[in-house]
Amino acid sequence: MEGEPVNVNEFQELARQALPKIYYDYYSGGAEDEYTLKQNVEAFQGITIRPRILVDVSRIDLSTTVLGYQISVPILIAPSAKHKWAHPEGEVATARAAAILSYRSTCTIEEVASSCNAVRFFQCYVYKRRDISANLLQRAERCGYKAIVLTVDSPRLGRREKDIKNKMVNPQLKNFEGLISTRVSTDDGSNIEAFDANTAFDASLSWKDIGWLRSITNLPVLLKGVLTHEDGG
Ligand SMILES: Cc1cc2nc3c(=O)[nH]c(=O)nc-3n(C[C@H](O)[C@H](O)[C@H](O)COP(=O)(O)O)c2cc1C
């Protein structure tokens, strides 16, 4: 690549060169032949902007509100796990921009909260050990996160084939220290999958549990991953 990177694809190429393959594959890979991943990229390319002409754009204000909170641009970074694999500052740096902190972040809820005053939300899963979910939610609330984002589209982790091949290692995540060991070691494929499938995710999670979640937090609960209009209705 010549000169400074100027677009996302060029940054991705730099990341590919800089990161150990096992981490690069984790960030960039998808599940099951990466079929949906490819479809998402294609669908995005199919979106066209219809610019209107002769509109005064000399002063542009992209600020808006989300859940009543003012944000400077209508961009939120989706929760994604394990940022410290890419940069020593991890989620603390991401949160300076705009972020929904992942349940499985590599910085703690508290570290990210004290890094700056951005509006932030906390993403959670419901683990079989409900006390763990309750503990993390209460910490997020205490630290001033404004909403809980419950991921509802992954009762099981997608079958991420690159992670299986790379025998992806699950680290001990600091948010869970003293609560549960997130370090799992099997010789059989991705350790992340092994942890989620065997130890962590409560696959019985259903609508009735949303009431439970709302009973343990005063924050608004948003559902992340509603995929059909039947579920949205
Ligand atoms: C490396 C990586 C880690 C992710 N970790 C999480 C996570 O911890 N929690 C979560 O709810 N979603 C997680 N996601 C899913 C994203 O939030 C998002 O829903 C998904 O990537 C689809 O959006 P996209 O098409 O813009 O990538 C992760 C995605 C990636 C690529």
Automatic annotation (TrEMBL):
Alphabetical list of SUPFAM superfamilies matching this protein: FMN-linked oxidoreductases (SSF51395)
CDD domains the UniProt entry points to: alpha_hydroxyacid_oxid_FMN
Keyword Oxidoreductase set for record: yes
Claim: DNA-binding is one of the keywords in the record: no
Requisite cofactors: FMN
Domain FMN hydroxy acid dehydrogenase: 1-233
Xref: Gene3D superfamilies: Aldolase class I (3.20.20.70)
GO molecular function, one term: FMN binding
A Pfam family assignment: FMN_dh
Keywords per UniProt: Oxidoreductase
Family classification: Belongs to the FMN-dependent alpha-hydroxy acid dehydrogenase family.
Protein name: FMN hydroxy acid dehydrogenase domain-containing protein
Organism the protein comes from: Gossypium tomentosum (Hawaiian cotton)
